[in-house]
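Entry 14. Ran structure prediction on the chain below.
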Amino acid sequence: MASQTPIAEFDSLLSDSEVLFVVFYRGHWCPFCQAWLRDLQAMSPSVASMGGKIVAITAQPAEFLSQMRERSGYSGDAIVDTENTLVPLMKERYGLEVAITERAGYAHGMAQPAVLVLRGGKASGGKEPVLEKWAIVPSTMNIGGAKDRPELQQVWENARAQFQGQAKVHQQYTTKGFLGMLWGKVFG
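Output, structure tokens:
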């Protein structure tokens, strides 16, 4: 997929799946992103069992993709979108507002953490495509968008329930802060 545009890559993944689980992450250097992508990798079999796919999206240059994979263990699809062309598309199509902040090394800004779970092209059938969505609003309290992200397993449980026509399992997500992330790195 390397020769396709980020939008074409995204649309291809979406059309070829029953469910598409999308995670925006900041970069290979972010320990919170590494932990999040480890969680995403662990969920991969469950998503795949429903004909779904997972994809991680970053505005970080492609040269850092292998370091992200090494540090997180994430082996799924990844889209490098250094110009953040997917951000306005996500807002227009799905109402997901991914924050962009300035950071050295990111020519067009750094996309902040966000999650979007969609019915894929194989399962749309005129139904609402958005199963779950969440995006961080960077602030001093969440270390500029680094921490207080929802547990991805809970997001998946809600999305899976909605996909199957059932009620949400979680009305509010548990978030993982600094100590939870550290605990997972040490014991996890």
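The domain at 6-187 is CATH 3.40.30.10 (Glutaredoxin). Will compare against last week's run tomorrow.
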